Amino acid sequence: MDKLKISSYLILIISIAGILYALLFNPPPWIVYGISIIFIPTGILSFGLISMKRGPKKDEEDKNREPFIGY
Amino acid sequence: MANILLNVLIAFLVGSVLFGLQRKIMARIQMRPGPPIIQHLLHTLKFFIKESTFPKTAAMPFYIAITAMLSVIWVAAIIVGPVTQGSLLLIFAIYAIHKIVEHNAGSSSGSPYGKLSCVRAVFSAAAEVPLFAVLIIIYFKAGTMNIAQIISYQAANGPLIYSIPLAAAMFFVLILSKAPYSPFAITKGKDIISGYETEHFGLLRGYLMMSESTAWYMLLWVFLTVFIGGLSPLWYLVGMLALSTIVGFINATTPILNPNHSIMTQVSFALIGIVGSLVLLLY
Amino acid sequence: MDIIILGQQLMGYIPLGDIVLYLAPVNLFMFASALAFTTLIAISRTETQVEAGVGTLKDQEVKVDKDEFKIRRFLAIVCGLATAGAMITGDLFNFTLFVCLIGIVNIGIVAAVKQIDVLDAAFQYGLVAMIAILPLFGGAAMILASTGTISLLEIAHIPTTFMMIFGSLLLFLGVAGETGVAPFYATKAEMFRTPGSPFLLIIHLSSLLVIIRVIEILLIINKPF
C-alpha cells in the first residue's frame, strides 16, 4: 500500500459518504449541488486510481521517463 | 441528488453511444465495417483497469487535477441544464473552462504534441469566442437568458430555430468543433498524435473520455432546448441521434483543416451569423 | 432579495455606496473556478518540456529554474486573484482596474522567460495592452458621465442612451485589447510556447473568463428592451 492507494481509498470513502448523505438526508439544494459537483468527479477519479493496474516496480522508472515505450 | 446522479449517468451513457454511432456512420460512409456502436463506451470503461503511470516530466498535481476539472465542469453543466434549467450564460462559462482544460491538459505533460495542442487551443479559443455571440442574439430575441424562460418563450412564439436560423447555425459550428474527427478539431488533430490527450493514457484517458461523452450530450441538449424548446425525452433522443448523424456525415467527408483555415472558417461563420442575425432581427 | 440580473436571481450583494460586490450563479461559478485554478497553481510543480535536440539524437529538456519559478508563480497568483476579483465586482471602475492589472501581470508572467520569440510576442502583446488601456478607462468614464453611477445594480435600472452604447463599445475594445482576443490574438498564441504550464494557464483563463464577464456587463448596460 503506497501513498497514492491510501489517499485514493480515503477520497473514495469520503465521496461515497457525501453522496449517501445527500441522498438520504435531503439537505438544502445548494449543499446538494456542491456535493454533487465536487464528490461525483472525485469519487470516479479515486475509484479509477484504485482500479488501475500498476506495472512491476523495476520498470516504473523507465516508464515514467518514456511512457510510450512498452505500450 | 438522485435526480442529479440519474442525469449524470444518462448523459454519460447516451453521450458514449452517440460517439460510437458517429464512428459507425463515418466508417460506413468510408466503406469500412467500423467498430460496434458501444465501442466508445467499452473503451472508456476498459481504460479504467489498464496499467497507468504518470510521466516524470508532468506538472504534478496539475496533470491529474485537470482531468478532474473537466468532469467537475460538466457535472455542473448537468445541474445548470436538465436539473435546474438555470442561466445560459453559465453554460458558456463552462464551455470557456472546457477550452482551458484542453489548453492545460496539453501543456501540463511536457510532451511536444501536447504543447502544440495547447498553442492550438489558445488559437481556436480566439476564434470560438466570436461564436459566443450566439448568446447575445438569443438574448435579443427571447429577452432572457434563463433556460426555463426560453422554453416558455418558445412554447408561446414557436421554436427559435425558425426566427434566428443563423444563430442556430453558429451554435452548430460550435458543437461541430467539439466532435472528434471534425474539420475544426485542430486540438485533437492526428498530425499531433492525439493532441492534448497524448500523454493522458490509461485511467486518466478513460476519465477524460467519460467527461467528453457527458459534454457531447450536454451540448446537444442545449442546442435542442434553446432552439427547439422543451421536448419529451423520446424527442430529445431523436434530436440527438439526428444531430450526431449530421455531424458524422460532415466528419466523414471533410479532412481536418489546417489551424489557420479552421480559425478563418469559424470566424467567417461567426461574422455571417452575427451580421445576418442582427439584420434579420431588425427587419 | 428579489433583484434579478439577466434572468438570474442574485444570491447576495455587499452595498458600499457605489462600490458593490454581488454574486449571481454565473459570478459564483467563475469566481470559484478562478480561485480553484489559483490554488492549483500555488501548489503545482512546473512541467519539463521535452524537445528534439538540434544536431544530435538526444532529447533536450527545457526546465524552469528556481528564481524564475518563484517570480512567475507570484505573478500567476496575483493574476488569478485579479481574475477572481473581476468576476464578482459589481462596480464598473473596479472591473476595468482588475482587467488592467490582468493585462500587466500577463506580460510579467512571460517577461521572466529567456526565449527571444516569446519575449517578442510578449512585447507586442504589451504594446496592444498598453494602447487598449485608453479605450478601457475612456469607455468606463463615458458610462459614468452619462449615467452618474458606476454601480451595475444602479445602471441596470437606467434606460440606455446613445452615449452608454458608445461607452460600452469603447469598453469592449479595451477589454479585447487587454485580453488579446479575436482581432488582437495573433501574437498571444506565441507566448504559450514557453515551459511553465501552470502559469500560462492563468493567462488563458483570465482572458476567457473576463470575456464572459464583459458580455454580462455589456448586456446589463445596454438593455435591448
Which key terms come to mind for this protein?
heterotrimer, A: 71 residues, mainly alpha, 3 helices, 73% helix, B: 283 residues
Description:
- Chain A is an all-alpha fold.
- Chain A contains three helices and no strands.
- Chain A has helices at 3-25, 29-51, 60-65.
- Chain B is mostly helical and 283 residues long.
- Chain B has one domain.
- Helix content of chain B is 72%, strand content 0%.
- Chain B has helices spanning 2-29, 39-47, 62-83, 88-107, 112-131, 134-142, 147-157, 160-163, 165-176, 203-227, 233-253, 259-282.
- In chain B, helix 3 (62-83) packs antiparallel against helix 4 (88-107) and helix 9 (165-176) runs antiparallel to helix 12.
- Chain B is globular and about 60 Å long.
- Chain C is mostly helical and 225 residues long.
- Chain C has one domain (4-48, 61-221).
- Chain C has seven helices and six strands, in the order E-E-E-E-H-E-E-H-H-H-H-H-H.
- In chain C, the strands form three sheets. In chain C, strands 1-2 form a two-stranded antiparallel sheet. Chain C has a two-stranded antiparallel ribbon with strand order 3-4.
- In chain C, strand 1 (4-5) and strand 2 (8-9) form a beta hairpin.
- The mean pLDDT of chain C is 83.
